Amino acid sequence: TWLERAHVPRVLAISLTLLFDVLALAGLIALVGRSLSGFQEAVPRYQRAISELVLGMVDLLRAQGAPVEPSDLEARGEPGWFLRVFGDLLRELMEFVSHALLVVLLVVFMLFEITPARARLAVLLGSRQGRLWPLAQADEKIQRYLVVKTVLSAITGVAFGVGLAILGVAFPVLWGLGAFLLNFIPSIGPAIATIPPVVIALLTLGPGAAAAAAVGCLSVNVVIGNVLEPRLMGEQFGLSTLFVFGSMLFWGWLWGPVGALLAVPLTMLLRDTLALAPSTRWLAALLASPDWLEAQRAAWGWTTPAGSIDAPTAPRGGDDLL
């Protein structure tokens, strides 16, 4: 769109856009591949260190009289299993981008369809289907959400990488990239991104560095998630925390890690679609946060303010019950 506004021919604008996408994708693949390869080579060493640390803790607990045996931990699985969480996630993403040709063809057709789609939407919004206008506004909200979330995730990833590099933690680029990706998963994503670098710092640099890494990562998550994101998002997010978590589980089950990354915008689109028709607005209200619902209440003609529903008066006697 920007290139066309600069009077670049449409075919050339699409070609340049596609070239940028391919170069960005190639750079991401190279970065992920290099970081993941080095991490996989180091995983066995870290797992041995974790096993030694766990055995030391078992000895300490047994010295205090706790009935703990090393076999109890072995029965529950390999102690270092969570070190492969990032590796599994990145392998899933690599498998996704391995279908690059199909993705590129889809992007080409979508780019050529932008202008005709706008024309069709303009006709629909000017006809009896004018109620589709809120859906067009929802599209703008989702785009804004994705742009803001991408910028904040990039800031989170850079802060993670730089901070961990200063502390001397191994593979800071990998942890920064993991923080960037997992920041798209609400609530639990940033927490998961904090665990592996803290564990690596504990195994290689000691408790002090691990504590510093934990404090630094958590501080970044708090500032980004609780200060910057609410200010920049405003009511664009507007989803119930419970349904955000539920949607993450559903889309993650359906599409894997990619579904978990896209859970919030997909749920936002579902909420705004349900809000179009009066018969389904109650479902949209269930998905929404109180602030978003209060902002929509007047437009819907609902007279009861959100969060102020009064309970019916209890009957006082048998006659009232009859």
Structure description:
The chain has 322 residues and is mainly alpha-helical. It is built from 15 helices and no strands. It has helices spanning 2-5, 10-63, 70-75, 85-97, 100-125, 133-167, 172-182, 188-205, 207-233, 241-255, 257-261, 263-274, 281-287, 290-300, 318-321. Helix 12 packs antiparallel against helix 13 (281-287). The protein is globular, with a radius of gyration of 25 Å. Residues 313-322 have low confidence and may be disordered.
Concise overview:
The chain has 322 residues and is mainly alpha-helical. The chain has helices spanning 2-5, 10-63, 70-75, 85-97, 100-125, 133-167, 172-182, 188-205, 207-233, 241-255, 257-261, 263-274, 281-287, 290-300, 318-321.
Q: What's the number of helices? A: 15
- Structural class category: mainly alpha
Unreliable runs: 313-322
* N- and C-termini, Cα separation: 68 Å
Largest sheet report: none
Integer average pLDDT = 77
Which series of helices and strands comes N to C?
Answer: HHHHHHHHHHHHHHH
Radius of gyration: 25 Å
Number-wise, the strands total 0
Query: Share of helix among residues?
Result: over 70%
Oligomer: single chain
Instruction: Tell the overall outline.
Output: globular
Q: How large a portion of the residues is in β-strands, by DSSP E?
A: under 5%
